[in-house]
């Protein structure tokens, strides 16, 4: 009886506002991973897309595809992500990322804010075929092997890239070469800021 009198004493507008807030929080907390896939596709202008997205925006996984010059998708692997609430303190939104077949090779972190995207402890391995999609001349050689990109810290903005990175082309080869693997190549990108 006392509970009923308390409920009756609360104005209906406060009950409605409370219900709306709780409902919104539930929607945000359970937002499907496919929403993140839609956002990634829009931000990258269709260069990176998700397939078979599972989980939520905050913790999930999806097959990641790279679409280059001719739009043919190249499978990058299964991307797993987990939201990092601690990044909000710094005015950013961050995630822990892992790309591969069910395991994280390194603890890669990405955070976004102030018009920049920051990558820390980046370690990613992709098929060399992604190079075909970056330039028509690279398509002509039919690159084979694996690309390994590593960086302690990269900061990307709309028109610049800052940081240092190493790109290794492992088991380098060509679709048109009689030699299966020609060796490996190494490219070091310097710490200096570069305009994109």
Explain the overall architecture.
The chain is α+β, with helices and mostly antiparallel strands. The protein has helices at about 1-10, 10-30, 35-45, 135-140; strands at about 50-55, 60-65, 75-85, 95-100, 110-115, 115-125, 145-155, 160-175, 185-190, 195. The longest helix has 18 residues, at about 10-30. It is built from four helices and ten strands. Strands 1, 2, 3, 4, 5, 6, 7, 8, 9 and 10 form a ten-stranded antiparallel sheet that branches. The N and C termini lie far apart (about 70 Å).
What's the short story on this structure?
With 196 residues, the protein is an alpha+beta fold. It contains four helices and ten strands.
Order of helices and strands: HHHEEEEEEHEEEE
- Rounded to the nearest angstrom, the radius of gyration is 22 Å
Give the biggest beta sheet.
Answer: 10 strands, antiparallel
Secondary structure tally, helices: 4
Helix content class? 10-25%
Structural class: alpha+beta
Q: Low-confidence parts lasting 5 or more residues at pLDDT below 50?
A: none
What is the number of E strands?
10
Beta strand %: over 45%
Instruction: Give the overall pLDDT as a whole number.
Output: 79
The CA-CA distance between the termini, in Å, is 69 Å
The global form is elongated
């Amino acid at each position: 009886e006392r509970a009923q009198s308390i409920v009756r004493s609360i104005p209906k507008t406060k009950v409605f506002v409370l219900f709306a807030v709780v409902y919104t929080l539930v929607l945000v907390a359970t937002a499907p991973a496919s929403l993140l896939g839609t956002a990634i596709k829009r931000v990258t202008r269709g260069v990176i897309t998700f397939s078979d997205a599972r989980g939520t925006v905050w913790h999930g996984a999806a097959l990641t595809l790279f679409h280059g010059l001719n739009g043919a998708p190249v499978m990058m692997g299964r991307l797993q992500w987990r939201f990092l609430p601690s990044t909000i303190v710094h005015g950013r939104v961050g995630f822990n990322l892992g790309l591969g077949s069910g395991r994280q090779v390194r603890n890669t972190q990405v955070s976004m804010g102030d018009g920049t995207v920051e990558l820390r402890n980046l370690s990613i391995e992709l098929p060399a075929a992604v190079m075909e999609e970056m330039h028509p001349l690279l398509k002509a050689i039919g690159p084979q092997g694996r690309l390994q990109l590593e960086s302690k810290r990269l900061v990307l903005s709309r028109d610049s890239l800052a940081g240092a990175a190493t790109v290794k082309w492992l088991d380098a080869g060509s679709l048109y070469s009689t030699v299966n693997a020609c060796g490996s190549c190494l490219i070091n990108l310097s710490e200096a800021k570069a305009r994109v």
